[in-house]
Amino acid sequence: MAAPQMRSPLGRAIGLGSAKEGVEHWWRQRVTALALVPLTLWFVAAVIGLVGADHAAFVAWVRSPMPAMLLILLLVATFYHVALGLQVVIEDYIHREAMRLGTLLVMRSLCVVFAVRGIVAILKLAFGA
Q1: For position 7, what pLDDT does the model report?
Q2: What is the structure's pLDDT at 19?
Q3: Rg (CA), the chain
Q4: Where would I find the beta strands (DSSP E) of 30-125?
Q5: What is the dihedral of CA 71, 76, 82, 84, to 10 degrees?
Q6: Who's near 102: CB < 8 A, 6+ residues apart?
Q7: Helix 97-127 to helix 55-62 angle, to the nearest 10 degrees?
Q8: What is the pLDDT along the chain (129 residues), one digit of tens a residue?
Q9: What is the dihedral of CA 9, 11, 16, 17, to 10 degrees?
Q10: Cβ neighbours of 78 (radius 10 Å)
Q11: Distance between the two ends of the chain, CA-based, in angstroms?
Q12: Dist. CA 90–CA 99, nearest whole Å
């Protein structure tokens, strides 16, 4: 029979250290979520304003500096927020260390690839390349 623990949960936790990342990760998720609110509202309003427009009108709209910049900000904030959220899910539900690290690497790589592809597409439209 095992000896009963005489220390409280706090006493057992003291000295173990912290991950030193939890609060920062939480804040990053909240900041990106907060940034996505006005960006998403702007995007929805812009898409509604472009309903019925042809391709030339859309390209002319993207060539304006403000829409191009806001679209890029929307992409960056969206994919960063997605990466942060999926990281939490992966860390919580994948228990084998090697599988967790591999999944995190693939997920982060895909988020970067999709964000960069979107940014390149916007820049191509904006600068007519």
Answers
A1: 76
A2: 58
A3: 22
A4: none
A5: -150
A6: none
A7: 100
A8: 566 677 777 776 676 666 566 789 999 999 999 999 999 999 999 999 999 999 999 999 999 999 999 999 999 999 999 999 999 999 999 999 999 999 999 999 999 999 999 999 999 999 985
A9: 100
A10: 20
A11: 74
A12: 10
How far is the C-alpha of 13 from the C-alpha of 5, rounded, in Å? 13
Q: Which two tokens stand for residue 107?
A: 């997920």
Listed residue (28, 38, 109, 107) closest to 73, CA to CA: 38
Are the C-beta atoms of residues 108 and 101 closer than 8 Å to each other?
no
Do 124 and 72 form a contact (C-beta atoms < 8 A)? no
pLDDT at 48: 97
As given in the structure block, the two tokens for residue 56 are: 């030339």
How many residues in total does the chain contain? Answer: 129
| Token pair 């912290």 in the structure block, residue | 18
pLDDT score, position 129: 59
Distance CA 61, CA 74 (A): 16
